[in-house]
C-alpha cells in the first residue's frame, strides 16, 4: 500500500481493527437479543426493541454524547470501569464501542429475521429426540440462522467502518488512537492541500464497502444452500 | 410393556378428557379431525402441559400432576414421528438418523444402526440431504431417526397423511414391521379406517376429546357404535389363516371354520392373515342365496341394527368367522324385516388382505373377490 501515506495507512488499519472488534463482540450479544425478541414474550419486549433500534434513528451526535456521559471517565459506568483499569473515552476501545453500538441494530435485525424464519417445529422435533434447550439451540437453531449471522455481521462491519458522528463526539479525532477512516477523511478536508489524501481514502472506503457487500452475498448464498438441505 | 394415559385439559372451545391403557403393539388413536388425537399425543410427548393427568410407560411416569412430576420433552425418551417428517435440513440423512443417539443415555438399549437402515431400506440415501428426498423417503428417514433415539415409546401423528396413495403403500409395510419386530409400543394417530384395520393392535376411538371405545382392534372396529367417520368408513377386521392354494388360481382362507376365497396370495398355507371387509362391500340376504356369482357368503345372526339421520343403516352380524358389518339402506332393512336375533347371510363382494404377524408383505390392496357382484 505504497500509494497511501503513513497517516492514511494508520487510519485504515485502525478502522479495520475497530470494526472487527465492534462486530465480533457485538455478534454474540446480538444473537441473544435477536433470539429474545423473536422467540420470547416478556414485559419490556417493546422497550428492548426500541432501545436496540435507537442508534439507528437518533442523530449519531446524540448517541456519541450519551456515550460520553455514560462511559466518560466521570460517567456512571466509565468511572467504575476506570477503577478496573479500563478507559474507553478518547481511546480506540471507545471507538470500537461507538461503532459497535451504531452497528448493533443492523446485526439484530438481520439475525432476528433469520430466527423468525426457522420453523419452531424443527426445534420441537429436536427436543423430542432428547436435546435440551441449549443443545437444540446449538445443533438446530444456530446452524439454521448462520446465513443471517453472516449477513448481519458483514453489514455491521461495513456500518462500523463508516461510523463517524458518534465516534468523533465520544472519542474525538486523535491520530493513531481514534482517527478512523471517516475521521481521517474529515480531518484531511479541513487542512489546505489535504484533498489528495482524502480522495485516496475515499477510494479505499468505496473498495472496502464493495468488498464487504460482495463477500456477504457470496457467503450468504453458500450458507443458505447448505442450510436449505440441498 | 404397557402405556397408561390419563389426560384432562380445557381449551376455550373444547375439553380433552381421555383415559386408556394400551398393551404392546400399535395403539391407534382413531377419530375425525378435531377430536383431540394430536393434542393427546402432544401431551404424551410433553409438547403440551395438561392441567391434569398422568402418563406412564411401563410404570415409568412421564408426568403426574398429582405427584407434581413433569419431565420436559427431551427427558421422556420418546420417538416422535411427525406428519411432515421434520428432518433437519442442514444435516444429511446419516446425521439426521444419528441425532437422537447423541442424546440417548449410554446404557440405553440401542437399535443397531445397520439393522434400522436395512429395515427401512434407506441405505442408499445416507449421504443425501433431506431436500433431495421424496416424501416417502423423508418419512422413512423420520421413522429411523425416531427409532435410533432409543425410545421407550414411539409416537406417530398421522405419519402417512401428507403422502399420496402410492407413498402410503410404500410406508405402511414398515409400520407393520415395527409392530411385529420391534418391542417398543407405538401410539399411532390416524383418521383412516383402512390404516387402522391394517395396523392396529388396540384401537382407542376418540370423539370430541373423549374416549368412546377402547379395546382390541377386531372388537372395536366391528362395533357399529364406533364409526368416528360415519358408516361410510365402517368395516370389520377378521383374523384368518391361509388354508390352501387352489388350482384355479384362488387362495382359500379359513376363519372360524368358514372358508373365504380370494385371488391367489403369495403366502404359505398356515400363514396368519388379517382381512378387512368394508361395510359397503357386504350385501345381506335372509335366505341362503342360490344362483349368485359371489363365493364368499357368511351365515350369521344379526346382533345390532343402527341407523342415523341418513338413509343408511349399519347392521352387525355375528358369524363364525367374527363380526361382520353391512351397510344397507333403511328402506331395505324395513322391507326385509331385519331384527336383532335373526339369522342372515352376509354376501361379501370384496375382501382386503394383509399379512398379520409377518411384516414386509405386499400392500393391503383392495383385492376384489372373485365373481364379485
Automatic annotation (TrEMBL), chain A:
It is a multi-pass membrane protein. One of its GO terms (molecular function) is molybdate ion transmembrane transporter activity. Keywords: Cell inner membrane, Cell membrane, Membrane, Molybdenum, Transmembrane, Transmembrane helix, Transport. Residues 12-214 form the ABC transmembrane type-1 domain. GO terms for cellular component: plasma membrane. It holds the Pfam family BPD_transp_1. It is found in: Cell inner membrane; Cell membrane. The keyword Transport applies. Signal peptide: none annotated. The chain crosses the membrane at residues 20-38, 50-72, 84-108, 134-158, 197-216. NCBIfam families: modB_ABC (TIGR02141), PRK09421.1 (NF006939). Part of the binding-protein-dependent transport system for molybdenum; probably responsible for the translocation of the substrate across the membrane. Belongs to the binding-protein-dependent transport system permease family. CysTW subfamily. This is Molybdenum transport system permease. It comes from Salipiger marinus.
Automatic annotation (TrEMBL), chain B:
Residues 5-233 form the ABC transporter domain. Keywords: ATP-binding, Cell inner membrane, Cell membrane, Membrane, Molybdenum, Nucleotide-binding, Translocase, Transport. GO terms for cellular component: membrane. It comes from the Bacteria. GO terms for molecular function: ABC-type transporter activity; ATP binding; ATP hydrolysis activity; molybdate ion transmembrane transporter activity. Residues 291-357 form the Mop domain. Pfam families: ABC_tran (PF00005), TOBE (PF03459). The keyword Ribonucleoprotein does not apply. The keyword Membrane applies. PROSITE patterns: ABC_TRANSPORTER_1 (PS00211), ABC_TRANSPORTER_2 (PS50893), MOP (PS51866). This is Molybdate transport system ATP-binding protein. It comes from Salipiger marinus.
Amino acid at each position: 500500500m505504497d500509494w497511501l501515506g503513513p497517516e492514511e495507512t494508520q487510519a485504515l488499519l485502525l478502522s479495520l481493527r475497530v470494526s472487527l472488534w465492534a462486530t465480533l463482540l457485538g455478534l454474540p450479544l446480538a444473537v441473544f437479543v435477536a433470539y429474545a425478541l423473536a422467540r420470547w414474550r416478556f414485559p419490556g419486549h417493546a422497550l428492548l426493541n426500541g432501545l436496540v433500534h435507537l442508534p439507528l434513528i437518533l442523530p449519531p451526535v446524540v448517541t456519541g454524547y450519551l456515550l460520553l456521559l455514560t462511559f466518560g471517565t466521570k460517567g456512571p459506568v466509565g468511572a467504575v470501569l476506570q477503577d478496573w483499569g479500563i478507559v474507553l473515552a478518547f481511546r480506540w476501545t471507545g471507538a470500537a464501542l461507538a461503532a459497535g453500538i451504531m452497528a448493533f441494530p443492523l446485526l439484530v435485525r438481520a439475525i432476528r429475521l433469520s430466527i423468525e424464519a426457522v420453523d419452531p417445529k424443527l426445534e420441537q422435533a429436536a427436543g423430542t429426540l432428547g436435546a435440551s434447550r441449549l443443545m437444540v439451540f446449538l445443533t438446530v437453531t444456530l446452524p439454521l440462522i448462520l446465513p443471517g449471522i453472516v449477513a448481519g455481521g458483514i453489514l455491521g462491519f461495513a456500518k462500523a467502518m463508516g461510523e463517524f458522528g458518534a465516534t468523533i463526539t465520544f472519542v474525538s479525532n486523535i491520530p493513531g488512537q481514534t482517527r478512523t477512516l471517516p475521521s481521517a477523511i474529515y480531518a484531511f478536508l479541513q487542512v489546505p492541500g489535504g484533498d489528495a489524501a482524502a480522495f485516496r481514502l475515499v477510494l479505499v472506503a468505496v473498495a472496502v464497502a464493495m468488498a464487504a457487500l460482495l463477500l456477504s452475498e457470496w457467503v450468504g448464498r453458500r450458507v443458505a444452500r447448505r442450510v436449505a438441505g440441498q | 410393556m404397557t402405556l397408561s394415559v390419563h389426560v384432562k385439559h380445557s381449551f376455550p372451545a373444547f375439553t380433552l378428557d381421555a383415559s386408556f391403557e394400551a398393551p404392546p403393539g400399535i395403539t391407534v388413536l382413531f377419530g375425525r379431525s378435531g377430536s383431540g388425537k394430536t393434542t393427546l399425543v402432544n401431551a404424551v410427548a410433553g409438547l403440551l402441559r395438561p392441567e391434569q393427568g398422568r402418563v406412564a410407560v411401563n410404570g415409568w411416569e412421564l408426568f403426574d400432576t398429582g405427584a407434581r412430576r413433569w419431565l420436559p420433552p427431551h427427558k421422556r425418551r420418546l420417538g416422535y414421528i411427525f406428519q411432515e417428517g421434520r428432518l433437519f435440513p442442514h444435516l444429511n440423512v446419516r446425521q439426521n438418523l444419528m441425532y437422537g443417539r447423541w442424546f440417548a443415555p449410554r446404557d440405553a438399549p440401542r437399535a443397531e444402526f445397520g439393522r434400522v437402515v436395512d429395515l427401512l431400506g434407506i441405505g442408499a440415501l445416507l449421504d443425501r440431504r433431506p431436500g433431495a428426498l421424496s416424501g416417502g423417503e423423508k418419512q422413512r428417514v423420520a421413522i429411523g431417526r425416531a427409532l435410533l433415539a432409543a425410545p421407550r415409546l414411539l409416537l406417530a401423528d398421522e405419519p402417512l397423511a401428507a403422502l399420496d396413495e402410492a407413498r402410503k403403500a410404500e410406508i405402511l409395510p414398515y409400520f407393520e414391521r415395527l409392530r411385529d419386530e420391534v418391542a417398543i409400543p407405538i401410539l399411532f394417530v390416524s383418521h383412516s379406517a383402512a390404516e387402522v384395520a391394517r395396523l392396529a393392535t388396540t384401537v382407542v376411538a376418540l370423539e370430541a376429546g373423549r374416549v368412546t371405545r377402547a379395546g382390541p382392534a377386531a372388537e372395536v372396529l366391528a362395533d357399529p357404535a364406533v364409526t368416528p367417520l360415519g358408516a361410510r368408513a365402517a368395516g370389520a377386521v377378521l383374523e384368518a389363516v391361509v388354508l390352501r392354494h387352489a388350482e384355479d388360481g384362488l387362495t382359500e382362507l379359513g376363519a372360524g371354520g368358514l372358508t373365504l376365497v380370494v385371488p391367489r396370495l403369495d403366502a404359505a398355507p398356515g400363514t396368519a392373515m388379517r382381512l378387512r371387509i368394508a361395510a359397503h362391500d357386504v350385501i345381506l340376504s335372509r335366505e341362503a342365496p342360490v344362483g349368485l356369482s359371489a363365493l364368499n357368503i357368511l351365515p350369521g345372526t344379526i346382533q345390532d341394527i343402527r341407523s342415523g339421520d341418513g338413509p343408511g343403516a349399519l347392521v352387525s352380524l355375528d358369524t363364525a368367522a367374527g363380526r361382520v358389518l353391512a351397510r344397507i339402506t333403511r328402506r331395505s332393512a324395513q322391507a326385509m324385516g331385519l331384527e336383532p336375533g335373526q339369522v342372515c347371510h352376509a354376501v361379501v363382494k370384496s375382501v382386503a388382505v394383509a399379512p398379520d404377524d409377518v411384516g414386509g408383505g405386499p400392500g393391503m390392496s383392495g383385492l376384489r373377490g372373485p365373481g364379485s357382484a
